[in-house]
């Protein structure tokens, strides 16, 4: 990135103003009906009028996404460790994991709904399912790409398997795990919204769906806006944890 | 009896031959035998990929040998042991540890990371000229400084033997010369024996009491040459007659200079 800090604030803002103005201009010039494309002002009013609802429904969706994401971490990391460190487990389960990864998880949503019913469980399950695989794949990749000389150094000191794992392999894999988590947390939000699309009576996904069915497009846009803010917050949470965990990473490594 | 005795060490890697589908073995090291004393620096000199690193890793017990014997300090070697420090071509520091914690890593593994170890780590960092960098992260150091840290890490548990695998190969010429002098002063300090793998002829001679020149694969010891340059060396030594003679003999053994073209012999 280049430019002074003032330029770095000014130009993105200018870009935003330009895009929003263009949007407004399109609405005026083509006389778009609000039901098809609300003007930015309509959306802003919708946000202002419904912000309590957006906040409450947003919290419900966020809760489901973060719980699904947390569950994906809790189950995914140990499984990846097992697969990465024990060749027999790897031979047994890695092919299955790869095969399962190619299943479009979203397509499982109706089935999960049948199993778990309408409620937080099915949403959480879908969020977990889509977040699970990037964590597994990146964690095991990280554990398998420990620098060779570090492993040899540990071996030359007759380090036990546990010592090597705790002191060498796991810390070396942390940047990979964080990268996986960044992808996973965004996917978890998508998963939760899809859960709400398929069958739910609350959450931003539900709000969006019911707004469009009432042809309240401005409210649908407002929900969309709330969703992207939420996705960004979830992502920032992971970035914050990353900075906390690994102050040793050089700055340009933070987003590889 | 010599401190280190290597007798007929041989390493054969099983390898697939693609042309006819049949398996053909790759002889990486062919019957290497040599001895070295405590406090002696022995350079293992040879072309890249000639098997000298294989020999070093066999001596470290990191790689099983196909046949032959290795004995260090009177003990037969069949796996890693605590009496040596290994230094790799890349510094191999852990980015999540500070400089001093990198130096103390072996003590963590050996479960002897106490106040005494910390004091020793400080002394070593002082010795290699890194005083004041204890709390620095490795990525903030230059390549030469990182290799100094790696040297301290190899010395922290007071090994009697240093195994160095082209440790200064990635450094620029001037830094490398500095590191050579550092190694010589460390040898005086610690009295450790050093096995030093390199493909630089002048580095091999400058450091060593003895140079072993390896032939191309399968690696055989083509020449074992004792270096009589005394224990105090400076870069002026590089221009002495003795040094140049040694360079010429090593070059001949490596096949770079043909003996018949010699003007005066």
Roughly what percent helix of chain B? 25-40%
* General form of chain A: globular
Number of domains of chain A: 2
Largest sheet properties of chain A: none
Largest sheet of chain B: 6 strands, mixed
- Radius of gyration of chain A, in Å, reads 22 Å
Task: Report the average pLDDT across residues of chain A.
Answer: 89
* Total number of strands of chain B: 10
Q: What's the count of strands of chain A?
A: 0
Word description of this protein:
The complex is a heterodimer of chains A (256) and B (265). Chain A is mainly alpha-helical and 256 residues long. Chain A has 9 helices and no strands. Chain A is globular. With 265 residues, chain B is of the alpha/beta class. Chain B is built from 8 helices and 10 strands. The chains are: A mainly alpha (256), B alpha/beta (265). The A-B interface holds A 147, 149-150, 152-159, 163, 167-168, 171-172, 174, 246, 248-250 and B 60-62, 79-82, 84, 86, 88, 90, 92, 94-97, 105-106, 108-110, 137, 139.
Structure keywords:
heterodimer, A: 256 residues, mainly alpha, MetI-like fold, 2 domains, disordered C terminus, B: 265 residues, alpha/beta, Rossmann fold, 6-stranded mixed sheet, 4-stranded antiparallel sheet, 8 helices, 10 strands
